[in-house]
Amino acid sequence: MTTKPDYVAIGIFAAFFLLVTVMGFWAARWKQSSEAMSLDEWGLGGRRFGTWITWFLVGGDFYTAYTIIAVPALVYAVGAYGFFALPYTIIVYPFVFAVMPVIWRIAKQHGYVTAADVVYGRYGSRLLELAVALTAVVATMPYIALQLVGMASVLAALGLQGEIPLIIAFVVLAVYTYSSGIRAPALIAFVKDVMIYIAVIAAVAVIPSKLGGYGAVFAAADDAFKAKGAGGILLKPDQFLPYASLALGSALAAFMYPHTLTGVFASKSANTIRRNAMLLPAYTLLLGLLALLGYMGHAAHLQLASNNDVVPVLFKTLFPSWFAGFAFAAIGIGALVPAAVMSIGAANVFTRNFWKAYVNPAVTPEAEAGVAKIVSLVVKIGALLATLYLPTHFALDLQLLGGMWILQTLPAVVFGLFLQSLRASSLLAGWLAGLVSGTWFIWSDGLKPIHHLAIGSAGLSLYTGLLALVINLVVVGVVHLATSLRANR
Amino acid sequence: MNTNHVRPRPILLLLLVPFLGLLDVSLYNVAEPTLFGFPFFYWYQLLWVPITVLLIWVVYQGTSHDD
């Protein structure tokens, strides 16, 4: 998308960016304890975040800037199928309600900072800890890069050409995350989320009235898909299982990522998390309405160079410059919050499960914070370089693989909370089987998320991550039985 | 380590209801009836947001939390 610089919009964008930058640096002093800076303070805000801070923080880093660009883009491109994000972000909350308070309590009791800490504490296996930690870091890296892709798309819509604006934004982010830790994104999330709510509510209220109402929007999308001969505003029967399995697999994977777990661990109490399982769905409602912007793109007859332009171009076409600038600032700041929490989450994992485990087991809490701060910088610079020098599809492909990989840590992280007799050996075998088979399927399917299983003459298609999880669980069960039998002999 | 924090109780089964309502796509992959111009497929899934919150709230009220 080539556009002339829109100076009103750029001015609004710059003003909000400046505001959150000041907040980011000031955050270091916000709710700071008198103790020296430890990893608990830097990486988890001292585990003192109450219901509302957690709501803004987790809402801000689970519903990312990339989501705001990509979900409407997918709906624009394929229709109803892109809506799997809606059931996904609904069924995730019963899971969060049932599981996350249990994990939080164990983490709080023992001072754990990462999922791999929980796993090591439960099973005492360095190998299983390493498996979970490695998966977490590798899955998070492309996720950070995608936040940059989201930010780049709104910068382009503002008419800011070249890589300099993106580099400036990210360097500023890196520096205040370094000094303030998780308090920076927690504080910025207030601003970002309020802005996103305003932008999206305005969009879903105003845009349809300009386009003849929601009925007309759906009809226009239906016509566009019929003319194109692909996609549709309802699913085809062969899409039912892919749709449902994508929703289920994504929901089970969502809170295995370091950035979402970091938000959980930073909570003040288990009830903070339970209340959030009831409050966070407000964002899902917003996401469901936001996804409809994809159809509004059809109703407005936008000419797009890329599907990812649907949201920026829609705002530019149908709103005055100042409001477009406001909305783009919301999305741009929206990229900063998850990118910060993701880099902190990855840094926590590196510090606890690589540095403390292998380099310096006697590391003090203060030194842990020092290591994590440096790692958060390295992680972000890595993501920036990847965004600048590698093609975008590389981050997308890795993100797809990453979602499947992180899902394979679910049995190790969660099942042990409820089942007493599980052992590290069977979980490790399951993790490896799921990881290898899933990677093989996705690779041989040409980096597509859906795998077709031929069963006799019939067959079924489903989300590869979920298929790999089934293989994972079967292997866990078989190895568990085999080792139990041997132990009883 | 005491990992038995969640005692299986019948009320927890309510948490499975959203999975049933949303994962069987054949239940709701239809256009009619529409609501405010939204085909059934869309408003049905959006409606599950408040329903899910309500179900979680019922479970929250119906179980004791000592933390």
Overall description:
Chain A is mainly α and 489 residues long. Chain A has one domain (7-397, 406-419): Sodium/glucose cotransporter. Chain A is built from 22 helices and 2 strands. A two-stranded antiparallel sheet of chain A has the order 1-2. In chain A, helix 1 (7-26) runs parallel beside helix 17, helix 4 (65-78) packs across helix 17 (321-359) and helix 6 (115-123) runs antiparallel to helix 7. The longest helix of chain A has 39 residues, at 321-359. The model of chain A has no long low-confidence stretch (mean pLDDT 90). In chain B, helix 1 (17-23) packs antiparallel against helix 2. Chain B has helices spanning 17-23, 40-62. Chain B is mainly alpha-helical and 67 residues long. Chain B has one domain. Chain B is built from 2 helices and no strands.
Show the helix and strand layout.
The complex is a heterodimer of chains A (489) and B (67).
Chain A (H helix, E strand, L loop, with lengths): L6 H20 L12 H6 L6 H12 L2 H14 L6 H26 L4 H9 L2 H32 L6 H17 L2 H29 L1 H16 L11 H15 L3 H8 L4 H10 L1 H11 L1 H7 L10 H9 L2 H39 L5 H25 L2 H16 L2 H9 L5 H21 L5 E6 L2 E6 H25 L1
Antiparallel strand pairs in A: 1-2
Chain B lengths: L16 H7 L16 H23 L5
Helix pairs in contact in B: 1-2
- Proportion of residues in extended strands of chain A: under 5%
Q: Give the beta-strand count of chain A.
A: 2
Q: Give the C-alpha Rg of chain B.
A: 16 Å
Number of helices of chain B: 2
CATH H-level superfamily of chain A: Sodium/glucose cotransporter
Residue share in helices of chain A?
Answer: over 70%
Number of domains of chain B: 1
Distance between the termini of chain B: 17 Å
Largest sheet of chain A: 2 strands, antiparallel
Domain module count of chain A:
1
Structural class of chain A: mainly alpha
Q: How large, in whole angstroms, is the Cα Rg of chain A?
A: 22 Å
CATH topology of chain A: Sodium/glucose cotransporter
Outline type of chain A? globular
* Second-tier CATH architecture of chain A: Up-down Bundle
InterPro entries (chain B): DUF3311
Transmembrane segments (chain B): 41-60
Protein name (chain B): DUF3311 domain-containing protein
Keywords (chain B): Membrane, Transmembrane, Transmembrane helix
